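User: Can you recover a sequence for this backbone? Please restate the input before giving your answer.

Assistant: Of course. Working from this structure:
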């Protein structure tokens, strides 16, 4: 990772294009925003589609309830009454799973209610279920990044927040700070976003860019990955935001597009929509992260 370059755009009050970039201020601003979340409960759905010719075709959907303790790498739980996904083989075009999965700080437990009360227990941190792609790109969704760090960044350490990843990137290549450039994302002459872009491998063949909104706690508005030659591999866009608690901005609707890495043709579209959001609830039940097992549950230990 010795050749990582950081490109940052500073768009907050007191910073302008005439000033030198200050990475420490970016990190502290992100940390301040991340610290505002104390707990979170959401209900929503995730619809998946794949591209066939000129048409979008149903590729499954997920309904979910989720709880978070508001800390990077912290406790979380997903209850999924419906996870409908295409069969790779079999008589039906789709299969449906029903499950509960939670990380209580010491153990991950999975309860599969669709296969006769079967569950696994792992001592490792719960990583993001792939069914919820898109939410993981959000400010608080980043709290669930797994031990390999942010996808595309090969850190051996845990990386579980936007502030952490910016800090680690600059720490591994201090000289990159001198190469920071400043520009602005504007709409109708008004600054709308802070853009942070970086190369995620030594050859420079893969780049990632975030666009953050400084007026709303630095929530990511977009996250894109581009390969050498300018082919955009994936792009997450926040279509709608809400503020359920002071200083806490949560995406209500997210769209994520994936493209073929060689041709650039659209291949998949995922839409995450939240219908119910509660943040920083004084009555939040922190015992919810332990998935309970009904009598008669078959036990299978996981590694």
């Amino acid at each position: 990772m010795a050749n990582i370059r950081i490109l940052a755009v500073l768009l907050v009050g007191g910073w302008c294009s005439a000033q030198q970039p200050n990475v420490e201020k970016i990190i502290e601003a992100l940390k301040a925003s991340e610290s505002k979340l104390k707990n979170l409960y959401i209900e929503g759905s995730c619809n998946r589609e794949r591209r066939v010719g000129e048409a979008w075709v149903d590729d499954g959907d997920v309904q979910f309830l989720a709880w978070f303790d508001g800390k990077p790498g912290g406790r979380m739980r997903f209850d999924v009454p419906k996870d409908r996904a295409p069969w790779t083989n079999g008589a039906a075009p789709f299969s449906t799973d029903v499950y509960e999965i939670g990380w209580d700080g010491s153990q991950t437990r999975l309860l599969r209610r669709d296969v006769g009360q079967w569950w696994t227990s792992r001592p490792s941190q719960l990583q993001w279920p792939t069914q919820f792609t898109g939410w993981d790109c959000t400010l608080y969704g980043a709290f669930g990044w797994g031990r390999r760090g942010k996808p595309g960044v090969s850190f051996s350490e845990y990386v579980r927040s936007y502030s952490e990843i910016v800090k680690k990137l600059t720490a591994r290549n201090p000289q990159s700070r001198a190469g920071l450039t400043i520009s602005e994302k504007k709409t109708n002459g008004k600054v709308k976003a802070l853009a942070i872009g970086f190369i995620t491998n030594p050859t420079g063949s893969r780049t990632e860019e975030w666009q953050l909104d400084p007026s709303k706690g630095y929530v990511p508005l977009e996250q894109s990955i581009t390969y050498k030659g300018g082919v955009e591999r994936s792009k997450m866009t926040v279509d709608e935001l809400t503020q359920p608690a002071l200083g806490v901005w949560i995406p209500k609707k997210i769209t994520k597009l994936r493209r073929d890495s060689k041709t650039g043709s659209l291949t998949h579209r995922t839409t995450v929509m939240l219908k119910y959001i509660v943040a920083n609830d004084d009555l939040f039940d922190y015992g919810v992260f332990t998935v309970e097992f009904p009598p008669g549950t078959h036990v299978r230990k996981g590694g």
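That completes the design. The domain at 6-301 is CATH 2.50.20 (outer membrane lipoprotein receptor (LolB), chain A).
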